[in-house]
Amino acid sequence: MRKPIILMAALAGTVLVAGLAAALAFTRGQYRGLPLDGPPIALVGARIYDPAGDSLIEGATVIVQGREIVAVDVSVTVPDGARVLNLTGLTLLPGFIDSHVHLSGIRARASDGSRELGWLGYFWKFARKFPDRRRALIENGVTTVKSLGDPYPWITSFAEKIERHQLAGPRVFAAGPMFTAPGGHPVAQLRAAGQGDTSFIAQVTRQIVGPAEARTAVNRISRHVDYISAVLENRGFADLPVLAPAALHAITTTAHGHDLRVLAHVNSGAELAIALAAGVDGIEHVPFDAPLDSAALDALSARRVFVDPTLQAIEGYLEEVLGDTAAARMARANTRTLYQAGVPLLVGSDAPGPATGFGTTVHEELRNLVELGLTPGAAIAAATYRAAECLGLADRLGSVEPGKWADLVAVEGDPLVDITATSAIYLVIADGQLLLDRLARFKRPGSVTVQSGPQRPEPPERPGRPGLLARARPEPAP
Fold first, then answer.
1. Could you tell me which of 271, 234, 273, 227 has the C-alpha nearest to residue 251?
2. Res 59: pLDDT
3. d(CA 186, CA 317)
4. Angle, helix 269-278 to helix 245-257, in steps of 10 degrees
5. Tens-digit pLDDT profile for residues 46-88
6. CB within 8 A of 261, min separation 6: which ones?
7. How far, in Å, CA of 417 to CA of 230, rounded?
8. Which are the contacts of 365, defined by CB distance < 8 A and separation ≥ 6?
9. 296-319 burial, b for 16+ CB within 10 Å, e for fewer?
10. What's the mean pLDDT in 87-111?
């Protein structure tokens, strides 16, 4: 009798120890957010670039109080008790905005053809909310991301945890599921990646048959998402189903009725024409099948439809998956044409697709845009102020000004001369949280004298969900 009791006790002890070990491993390195109940932060001596006005301020001081920038000037009085950080010799920029990510995404296959991440490993990362991805984005100066397709409602809960600073990471604006045709992209890719159970696909996509189903699907999620992500692209496979024009039109008109923008994924000129006819507000990717025609260029420019080329992702996909280098060159040529036609461009990584990485691809995409003819200032604007305009939040994001959310990145060198300087990052503040400080590694030329004065009051808290964009919209007039 005693032996079974001893065995059961040993088993219970083993289970308890294993559970404690799993709990410890789960919580370690989870990348927690920081409270904002400390003193204000004073960033002194920086060279500040404002992409909104394409202007520079030398030797300025920026005061961050709570979640907001409260002062920017060369003669700012630093509040008593402020934490003073010397940025002499560094260039201060707005935090970068990655306009196209899939935070829960997984590549279909590794380079050797095997599945890149098994379900057990994926579930572990999913449950812990991908701390490695959040940290990588912050370490590369990305303080805001647009999720263009992640499990819903998981992604809105994830965004809220970052908004409340329970987790550290970039602010998340979320589309929720991707609206697509039955069996269309990304359903086939998810199945190939091993994410083929029906519940996961049902969370990541809405497979739309016709207009009535489209209206119902948009209405059901409209209060909780920030915009709608609609898929027309066939990924270069002619037999892959795509959304019908009537369904896309119903998605767009219904979304606009809820004050939601619609972003359409395309990869051909014909798909672009359908998207524009449906009245979408933004284009994800750039057609790579043929040169863009003048009608599309005129419509994009006249309506100021933002285009997020995701060149690095397109080239990686075309070369790694389709082996089509000619199409990759066409994508670059069309992006140059868009810029020359005055179409506003954005910076999006489409991570974690082929040849992309969280955070790092933003800097690769900046270099791509400069190679195609954009000035470094225009490329930086595409990753900051223009992206904020696309979100309808140019009054809160995308530049270094009083009243803006405190998203700031300090880099070494002059990114207006050499765009690669954007990746030499020494400081990152995201939503008022000092999440990266490498200033001790930087050799500063000279010193900065600051003057103390009375501390400024902390600005009021911002409300949270539903919908970060809904939160940021001004109250209607009485």
1. 227
2. 94
3. 14
4. 40
5. 999 999 999 999 999 999 999 999 999 999 999 999 999 999 9
6. 227, 228, 255, 281, 282, 392
7. 37
8. 309, 310, 311, 312, 347, 348, 349, 383
9. bbebbeeeebbbbbbbbbbbbbbe
10. 87
Distance CA 261, CA 47 (A): 35
What does the alpha-carbon distance between residue 326 and residue 324 come to, in Å, rounded to a whole number? Answer: 5
Tokens 């091993």 label which residue?
194
Q: What is the DSSP secondary-structure string of 220-249?
A: HHTTT-SEEEEE---TT-TTS----HHHHH
Q: Which helix (H) or strand (E) holds 307?
A: strand 306-308
Q: What are phi and psi of 317, to 5 degrees?
A: -65, -45
> Would you say residue 233 has pLDDT above 80?
yes
Query: Is 111 within 8 Å of 98 (Cβ atoms)?
Result: no
Between CA 375 and CA 302 the distance in angstroms is: 22
Q: If you compute the radius of gyration of the chain from its CA atoms, what whole number of angstroms results? A: 24
Distance, in Å, from the CA atom of 94 to the CA atom of 262, rounded to the nearest integer, reads: 25
CA distance 27 to 31: 9
pTM score: 0.89
CA angle 445, 446, 450 (to 5 degrees): 130
Task: Name the least confident of 112-126, 130-144, 322-336, 379-393.
Answer: 112-126
Structure tokens at 335: 């992006």
Helix, strand, coil content of the chain in percent (nearest 5) = 35, 20, 40
The residue among 309, 329, 307, 320 whose CA lies nearest residue 353 is 320
Distance CA 142, CA 359 (A): 6
* Cα angle 468, 471, 474; round to 5: 135
Omega prior to 211 cis, within 30 of 0: no
Helices (H), 235-359: 245-257, 269-278, 294-302, 311-317, 325-340
210: pLDDT strictly greater than 80: yes
> Encoding tokens for residue 69?
């920038």
Cα 387 to Cα 367: distance, rounded to the nearest angstrom: 17
Which long-range contacts (C-beta less than 8 Å, at least 24 apart) are formed by 196-201? 200/151
User: What is the rounded CA–CA span in Å between residue 34 and residue 165?
Assistant: 6
> Helix H segments across 140-257?
154-163, 187-192, 198-204, 211-221, 245-257
Mean pLDDT value of segment 171-194: 90
